Amino acid sequence: MREHFFTPLAFILLTWAGACPASATVLDQKIDALYSEVSEKFKNDPWMKNSADTSLHGVFPPEYQMPDLDHFRIFMKSYCTLLQNPDAAKQVPSRDHYTFVDLGQDATLRRLYVYDIKNHQILHNMWASHGFNSSMNVELTLSNTSSGQKDGVLYDSNPSRASFFSNVPESNETSAGMTFTEPHTYWSTVMERNGLRMHGLDGELDSKIAERGIVLHGWAFTAQEIAYYHIFPTSDGCVMLPESGFYKGTPNAAIFDLIEPDLASSAVLLYHKRLDPKQNELSHELQLNTFSELDSMIPGKIKPFAELYHWSSEETAKYTEELRAKLKQGLLTRIEDTYQYFKNSSKFVGQPVASEEQCIQDLNL
């Protein structure tokens, strides 16, 4: 059996913060007032409380949570920008609901929000997965060592944190950007469950989502299991929700089936802070620092094997370089690919709203 050594690395997350500036426009002021209104509804919703959830071995699922104000502004303005883009807007079948997934949050938190545009309230707040290659996980194995087996060193920063993104088929990474869903689910013979097809609206950020088979679907993991094991399963790139569990007062509810009608035919924003060019630069620098840190650790990780198997200095040097080459191939490549990926500007996130008056009307503010 191969040994694994785990080295958790904390990732520094930078968020856009700050109160509404003194030069806030009428739209900014109305969105901020709307946030207060939505927050109050959310707080008073009897189902948006842990008391409505059951525990597993005494551990309760993470609380329902509102997005922060800065992200709420981004979500709302991005939606207005979508509606004011005629080519994109005509592809979205319905304007009743709008879903946003905050992929900058940990997957063990409820980071998917289904928003009712007409009534200005959050209908659902749920977990959502990302692709397994979006996590900063790099497994490095030493081949053909004198131990007669493959000894391994596993670096795992946080499988629940999305760090890498792609629009490339077979990458098993999640895409970011504005998308929309089809009106009805389809039965996937591969997944053996229903899925809701998605289509990209954001150019090179997500143009191949449909081609890649990226869909919204449920998976056999309950809310209680997420809380107890503190992990949410990753996907091949799809956005997965818990398939069942205690939800809104109903034990063993079919969670995905309950939420799916509100997800269908609507815009879905897969958001990450790196859609902001400044945040992309900062994140790239942090990831390069992480790579350098991991690279510097390799000699220390090799040392116990060298002592255990009495390697010569030549063998030790050989396996050290082997691990370094694998780290570069497995991690540095993804770091650079993601950096280039986010240089594709979003058509909707971070873009100025063409008509603030029209936005106020579209949002019924």
Write a short abstract of this structure.
The chain is α+β, with helices and mostly antiparallel strands and 365 residues long. 35% of the residues lie in helices and 18% in strands. It has one domain (1-357).
Structural class: alpha+beta
* Range of strand content: 15-25%
How many strand elements? 13
Shape from CA axes?
Answer: globular
Helix residue percentage: 25-40%
User: Would you list the SSEs in sequence order as H and E?
Assistant: HHHEEEEEEEEHEHEEEHEHHH
Q: Would you tell me the overall average pLDDT?
A: 84
Largest sheet: 9 strands, mixed
Helical stretch tally: 9
Low-confidence stretches: 1-20
Distance between the termini: 61 Å
Number of domains: 1
Query: What Rg, in angstroms, do the CA atoms define?
Result: 22 Å
Task: Please give a structural write-up.
The protein is 35% helix and 18% strand. By secondary structure, it is of the alpha+beta class. The protein has one domain (1-357). The strands form 3 sheets. Strands 1, 2, 3, 6, 7, 8, 9, 10 and 13 form a 9-stranded mixed β-sheet that branches. A two-stranded antiparallel sheet has the order 4-5. It has a two-stranded antiparallel sheet with strand order 11-12. The longest helix has 33 residues, at 277-309.
